[in-house]
């Protein structure tokens, strides 16, 4: 079985950034613009692509959406997310994000960022606050998924990462711990709990 690791990949949303309130506000604005009275809160546990999420939300209000409309809606959602992040300083990192990234770099791992937004623009925003170099990737495009550790906070994200053969840590920052524990190889309540030494020991035992 696999016993090496070269890359650590994290989604920006929900693992590195605590941006759920911002995304909820944008969703509320989009719904109001369509004359839909929004609920006070929407579930972000499911994960999946933003396009799938928006389709599900609109269907929950009994609104049908064409593929063309959904494309426009997703683009608008991404644009507003990007614009709002540019006006937030510092970015809403989880408290342990920077320490975790520093530890990963000190271990010699390459860092990957999973996002559906404009990756280069996000990297420019991030580089002003964190000094580490990232590549932008998607789980289906990983060069060596079996040598990649993915940290995920949604069920679909965990399932996608496991489906390509990556090691997966479920981070219970968006959903209950027992949910992520059930689907990932390992589970933690936050990035602060991740123990690199224990992970290397577990990895060596798989050799």
Automatic annotation (TrEMBL):
One of its GO terms (molecular function) is hydrolase activity. Keywords: Hydrolase. The keyword Coiled coil does not apply. InterPro entries: HAD-like_sf, HAD_sf, PGP-like_dom2. Gene3D superfamilies: HAD superfamily/HAD-like (3.40.50.1000), Putative phosphatase, domain 2 (1.10.150.240). It comes from the Bacteria. This is HAD-superfamily hydrolase. It comes from Gloeomargarita lithophora Alchichica-D10.
